[in-house]
């Protein structure tokens, strides 16, 4: 399934996403054409472009819709996301992303670090070129801060016993939900929505992001049929203890704790036993319930937003995301 | 010599630099206090703070001087510089910077990558909080782009035969001179200087940065008495061929080329022979001449800027920089 096929029922949205891709490509201008081509190869190999989708749809909320602006902002948010992915891939030493070799594999870590930094600067270049609201830019910069605080916190807590659900939620709220929140906020703000509706858009995005990350963490434990290349329990192997495991630990602290105290890297046997324990203790089911609660909160917040065609599309997407048919 | 001692004759400037340091520190706010302390340890161990010095002094150019703003911008520029240093240290795998262990040594590469990203976002947070000119923000973002294009270009051209002086100048113009240029431009713009004077301030900063980097590259060949920890010819060992070597190659392409074609990493003997060749062919002297030319251009541009006390201080600093008593 190509990127655009998942949005098959929405021609206008697909056109906009193509324009977003084009805008990103146009902003990557490097005299050394080899470097330029290398970076464009990564940015053209995008995913579902969920963050641009939310920014594009929420930009139809108010009455100041401006297609060019809306596309520029969506492009800035996707560029920011891509920059973090390039650095994440260096950090995880991932060999491929979406079937193509990662930048640090094709070139090296150093190259990938600078390329990520370059995309960060393009993001702020785009934002400052198109926005009229400095407040919005500040929102974006602070949002990026929160993403990185979440990532640093996750690194720091690797291989330490799973703490509370609260600390997990705080971490994913930074690491993942922030960018969804700010995507919706950006769309709403640029469209001239009221302050209350901007805040609602922000909250909706945050709930979507929370549900999205929890589901991602569930798929890491259960295995994702669509993502055959990824080994099951990849996060836990790296010492990242996510919600299903935390719930499981709360149920059986001694049994789970004993396994987590084993020597790292964990053996396949330990991973297998951990997976069995998570199943037995209902860790996945409890996590699914929390994801459903966030989805419900997102839909509830959406229902309060100003009427418009965008709402039906958003409702559809949010529901699909929970069921992960998207 | 501590950081502030070099500015000993200028109490007002030292006060401002202390305020810059304090501002940066205040912006680093992370719930996990251990992470916060680690990052602050790096940012508090700053160098001469040359970029803030230029931003602070040029902010006295126009008639809208505002101390708080001027300090905030200087802090943003220093934070941007620090972010690039943290990533540079990961890339060069440098063990220490200014006598303290680098972040990736204390923690690990991953941590240092995210910490650098975090400082980038703080920089844009500061800029968007204080500026009233979106144009200025765009300038900063584009300047950061150029820095990274310069770094990528340098990485890409490692261990390839030294090309033209022109391509060297284009690389350092991005990698180093941009941040000096934008520091001067930022000060001038915020002070309400005329468009012509802003452009002059930008050019002056660029010339200063060019001279600064050429001198840095000369010291890499000659050895810097003040920087005892750094091995001589560190750049060339890493495949970064700078101006003295390029000049030398132009004089003796066969001899220099033969040495550069040897197996890498270069042996101490090869490095020794290269150094001798650079001396014989006058590579250092030719580079010094070009640095002096840029310094002269900087001073010449400075002389055309509006009168004020800041000019004498700038003149003093620019002259000291060339002689590297600074």
TrEMBL record, chains A, B:
GO molecular function: metal ion binding; prenyltransferase activity
Family listed: Belongs to the FPP/GGPP synthase family.
Named cofactor requirement(s): Mg(2+)
GO biological process: isoprenoid biosynthetic process
Highest rank taxon of the organism: Bacteria
Keywords: Magnesium, Metal-binding, Transferase
PROSITE patterns: POLYPRENYL_SYNTHASE_2
Organism: Halolactibacillus miurensis
Name of the protein described by the UniProt record: Geranylgeranyl pyrophosphate synthase
Gene3D superfamilies assigned: Farnesyl Diphosphate Synthase
InterPro entries tied to this protein: Isoprenoid_synthase_dom_sf, Polyprenyl_synt, Polyprenyl_synt_CS
